[in-house]
Amino acid sequence: MNFMQSRYFRRDNPLMNFVFLTIPQTLLMAVFSSTISGVFTILEENQKSLFYLFLGLAIAYNTAIMVYSVILHLKKRPCPTVFYWVNTAILAVLTYLFTWLLIQTRELLFNEWIYDIVKNYLLFLTFLMPSFIYLFYNIQRAITKPGKIWKNLLGVILIPAGFFFFFMIILPMLKWWNFIGTGFHAVLIFFLAGTFAFYFFFFRTLLIFINKNRQFIARFQWLINLIFCLVLPLGSLLLYNLYFSKFTEFKDVFGDYQDTWFYILCTATGIALTVPRLKNKAMALFHLTLKVTLLPFSLYFFVSFLPFLPLSVLFMSVFGIGGLMLSPVLLMIVHAKSIIDDLKKIDWIKAIGIIPALLVIPCAIMGNFAYHKITLHTALDYISASDFSDTECRVDIPALNSVLNNIDKRDHNYQTPYLSALYQAMVFNNLYLERNKRDLLTAVFLGRPYNGNNENIRPNTNNDRLTVNIKRIDSLSRYSPENGCWISDINLLIENTARFSDEYYGNFELPPGAFISDYYLVIDGVKKSGLLTEKKSALWTYKQITSVRKDPGLLYYEKDGSLTLKIFPVPPKGTRETGFEIIHKEPFNFNFDGTPIKLGGNSQPGSNAVKLNEKVVYLPGSIRESLDEFTREPVYHFIIDCSKSASKMTLNRIDGLLNHFMTNFQVDRSKATVHLANYTYRTFAWNGQWKENWKQMDMEGGFYLSRVQNHIILSHYAEKTCPVMVVLSPKPEKAIISGDINLAAALLPDTNYYYFFYNQKNVFQCKLGQKPVNPAEATVISLPPPEPVIAWPDAVNPRIFLRKGDSSAILSLPGSFPNDVKESTKNQPLLKRWEKAVINHRQWMEMNMYPSGYEEKFLAVYKNSLDNHVLSPVTSFIVVENPAQEKALLAKQEQVLAGKKYMTPMEQPVQMSEPGLLILAVLTILTVFGVKKRMLKNQT
Fold first, then answer.
1. How many angstroms separate the CA atoms of 864 and 704, rounded?
2. Alpha helix ranges (H) inside 344-490
3. How far apart are CA 430 and CA 437, in angstroms?
4. Which residue from 20, 386, 520, 825 puts its CA 20 to 30 A from 273's CA?
5. Is 637 helix (H, G, I), strand (E, B) or coil?
6. pLDDT digit string (tens) for 51-98?
7. What would you report as the CA-atom Rg of the chain, rounded to the nearest whole angstrom?
8. Which residues face 677 on adjacent strands?
9. What is the Cα–Cα distance from 684 to 846, expressed in whole angstroms?
10. DSSP 780
């Protein structure tokens, strides 16, 4: 029996309505409703009414189909032909309403929350096209009679030609057509009607041809399969990748299919379907298993191109595009028919045994993605979430390179339907890896150039601009005994002198021990308090909101410790009111945007060091100068480049250069240490086994200099010895310097420099945190001794060393790490608010000094910041305009907190949102099992 004539696919079976109508529309409504919930409150009334109309009609339609199908099934009656006509009309109306709905919300399309609806349009068509195909096929089965094929074929040819002529010639001449109003309505109706007419004639032509040529089709089935399953799909894929994918408009819409596996699977599927069924039972069973294994590939392309079937009418004149859209449909039909025909010839035990073959390709894909995730996180954990003393890191370099290439493809919009969305969800948890992190990974593990920390580059402050400035600053300070600190309110009036809206950007600094404890922004005359949220989520939200010119305000820490205030928009020739609250232990002179302000009274309650616990001390600036001086003893650390760029260095040359340096600068060899470094490092005493270990080092990856430097600095933290770091590298400009520069400077108060050389004549001095490049000045003749520092509490029993100065400081005492990873200030009611802020700041310092356990430390700092309602480097104050924006902000924050903390929210959403391959595989398994069960029932 022919596959399309079998009992379980007859046109009047009401159970098929569940498969092709009810289930797709139910899934679609579930996805669509979840998308609308995040943006519904910011829509206009007419847009809400359109949403209500669309959802109401869709739900009513779906319910009616379910009830009617159940009644027909219980009464054992077939579906009448009029049923298919009515459903076609209703689905056409739903398609029209959904398209018009997107046009009505066009002013919000720049906002990612509404953009979710736009990308769901492809999902809408994905679920809708099987319903249309099902309806058209059954209509044609009912009304098609033997006739002349050329009349219907003429409609198949003329409709695409008419579309091409209308859209390329007629439409550009209609100057009144601008996608709104009556013009767009007319074009939309014309396109939908023409598309329906095309598929009406297409199915009619197909059925007439099949009915007239059944013997020919049966005789040359192998040739038909060869054309439809191998030549057409492979030819369309080649032509698309070689020519049409070069055009951005095609690449952005249809996706990237350059991967070699597409060609391999396409060829294997075509050959498997072309080979006739083998007579040997074992080989026939293997052949069937192979076709079942390859079915997810055909199913993937079938589902991927379902949304574009209406567009295939426009692209019929272009073989590469039209063929690419139609060939997956034909391939899926032939593939499914071939498997069903083979299933009829085996028993049910073997059929069930073959079913797991469906999961081979999906499991292989997801297994590869899972391995990529492990590889990426292993590499990221090493550079961002491991202590500097950790020297072991095993990373699959080819797999990491593949991950980084996939990120670059996403940035350039080279995305593959379904797979890109699945990859983004599995590997990145729908977060984004910053460019600086990617560059650091490629430099550390692949040995490519690295330009440094471009994350810290900020736009110009308002001091460099003339249009938006501070018009007035008011301040009020009061001492709060219950909080144990001063509380100062800063109120700002911002003025825009330009004739266009603009953004205010201000950057300022606070001394150690001063914290932002509140923030507000006036919106439409109402003073709105800022939400204290995770910083990356707030930055993402601010960027999304400003793209549609709403009213956000943002206050957060930069990486260098300064604070940034942003407000958008400041109206033309208008003003905005904003302000924030500062809690601080001592009075201090505050400079905001060039305006000096005295915060706090004349009295200074508590002029002694404040020891909050055994881990942290607040040192007022008033007593810092009275501490004892101390000069630490210099000890030398030689860092030898063992990266890929230093592969030509020999041991004799290295040993000779080190000995010459030690002799020339009179280095005490007994106290010298050697570090062999590439992306990892090994440490040895000068008299140790460093030469033997150098011979065993793999000269690979990059020269990760900042990591070994941080380890050296931390190992001398609070010690009476000062590290003098000397770098030996043939290509010092390729050294990798990354991380928080201020942290290294704070922990090494004796000097700001390290030294490097690569021959016996030249020794250069370089500032910490900068690459060792050749300076213009002369080489170093003698190494200066460490500068005197001050010791706390005294020079006899020092616990920590500081630079000379008169500013306050927060001292994170050594020996206390990492014992308080989960320490919560909320459970310490005796602590005052300012004291909790200081303790939380010390936890943030620990997170940077000892990144191991980064996730837990991040969450501890984040939660303590929220509990105490005090800004921290991992949080941000933000004011948003309406509940929808707040809801989206909190949803994004939840996503960020659930993922890796060194990842950031995506700047742009992945444009292809589709169901996962596992879901498709499971549905296919259930379908095949159901078909086989029905076949067995019919036989009995």
1. 33
2. 348-354, 360-384, 397-411, 419-428, 435-446
3. 16
4. 20
5. strand
6. 777 778 888 888 888 888 888 888 888 888 888 888 888 887 777 777
7. 35
8. 641, 681
9. 27
10. P
The rounded Cα 774 to chain-centroid distance in angstroms is: 38
Q: How far apart are CA 297 and CA 269, in angstroms?
A: 8
Exposed (0-12), middle (13-18) or buried (19+): which is 459, by Cβ within 10 Å?
A: exposed
CA-closest candidate to residue 934, choices 12, 142, 16, 11: 16
Q: How far apart are CA 83 and CA 17, in angstroms?
A: 11
Q: Has this prediction a pTM greater than 0.85?
A: no
Of 417, 333, 320, the residue nearest 126 (C-alpha): 417
Q: Distance (Å, rounded) from C-alpha 557 to C-alpha 507?
A: 10
650 Cβ neighbours under 8 A, 6+ residues apart: none
The tens digit of pLDDT for each residue in 719-754 reads 899 999 999 999 888 899 886 545 666 788 998 889
The strand pair at 633-641 and 673-677 is best described as: parallel
The DSSP string of 495-524 is: EE-SSS-EEEEEEE---TTEEEEEEEEEET
- How far apart CA 133 and CA 818 sit, in angstroms, is 63
CB 269 within 8 A of CB 297: yes
For 199, the enclosing helix (H) or strand (E) is helix 181-212
Distance, CA of 314 to CA of 164 (rounded, Å): 6
Nearest to 115 by CA among 428, 547, 407: 547
Phi then psi dihedrals of residue 872, to 5 deg: -130, 170
* Identity at 804, one-letter amino acid code: K
Q: Quick one: tokens of 332?
A: 């899926």
Which amino acid type is present at position 526?
Answer: V
| Burial class of residue 778 in the structure, from the number of CB atoms within 10 Å of its CB (0-12 exposed, 13-18 middle, 19+ buried) | exposed
Task: Return the SS3 of 492.
Answer: strand
**What distance in Å separates the CA atoms of residue 829 and residue 401, rounded to the nearest whole number?**
50
Residue type for position 712? I
Structure tokens at 66: 């379910």
Residue given tokens 């083998």 in the structure block = 278
**Which phi and psi angles does 76 have, rounded to 5°?**
55, 45
Torsion, CA 759, CA 765, CA 769, CA 775, rounded to 10: -80
Strands (E) across 524-624 are located at 526-529, 531-534, 553-557, 563-570, 575-584, 588-592, 595-599, 610-611, 616-619
> How many Å from the N-terminal Cα to the C-terminal Cα in the chain?
17
861 within 8 A of 840, measured Cβ to Cβ:
yes
Q: Supply the DSSP string of 816-844, one letter for each residue.
A: -TTTTTT--GGG-TTS-HHHHHHHHHHHH
Answer whether 559's CB lies under 8 Å from 605's CB.
no
Helices (H), 597-704: 621-624, 651-665, 690-696
Highest mean pLDDT among 517-531, 546-560, 798-812, 922-936: 517-531
Least confident of 230-239, 445-454, 467-476, 606-615: 606-615
- Across the chain, mean pLDDT equals 79
Find all residues with CB under 8 Å of 681, minimum gap 6, and list them: 391, 639, 675, 704, 707, 708, 711
Quickly tell me which residue has 């030898």 as its tokens: 640
In the chain, what percentage of residues exceed pLDDT 90?
24
User: Identity (one letter) of the amino acid at 138?
Assistant: N
